[in-house]
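Recall the central idea of this unit: under ordinary conditions, the amino acid sequence of a chain determines the structure it adopts. In this exercise we apply that idea directly, starting from the sequence alone.
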Amino acid sequence: MSHYPVFHQMEGVKMFDEASLRGRTSPGDREKWIEADLKEGLEGMAKVLFGNVKMRWVEAYFPFTNPSFELEIYFENDWLEVLGCGIIEPGVVMMSSRGNEQGWAFGLGLERLAMVLFSIPDIRLFWSSDPRFHSQFESGEIVTFQPYSKYPPCLKDVSFWTPPSFHPNDLNEVVRDVAGDLVEKVELIDSYVNPRTERLSNCFRVSYRSMDRSLTNNEIDKLQAEVRKTIVDRLGVELR
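Accordingly, the structure predicted from this sequence is:
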């Protein structure tokens, strides 16, 4: 698991005054230049923090930046989002009394940084009280996390017709509200578009796993039934 409702974040902003943007007269030219500066700067920071890792940019949505992006690195055989960023909305700049300046901003999840530096595979471990986790670390030392016994996952799938307003983060929120820390991850495993109606159907797989005990199929079936009911009630989807 790489997402958690409680987290610590480092944020940064880089602003450009009129002199810095001189010669770039059109808004489009300025935006492209700022975006290029953003990506160059944050890729450089990522290389310093994480080493020479594979990375990619993904378009995203954040309320105070446009366009917005997420930077992902390849970690533990999967893509891991490490920061979100974007060009600051003009209205936000005006409210901060910076006039016609433009700039970009980012937020870096500190848990994600620690996961990579210490090879910690699951963000839930940071909130564990298990001494097998905490005893491995000393202040000022970077060590490789040694996994202890891991209980098997319990996998459940759910398919539904997706309304236009649907966003995967909404599903993640519903699943976590129902099942809490027993949810390891939620991932899209299949999509289908009906050729006649053009309706989109998605199939998501929910991985349940406890950090300290084996889960029974019976208890997870009850949770999954509640998940199915709640996504209909809150997200307005039609189950398949």
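The two ends are 27 Å apart (CA to CA).
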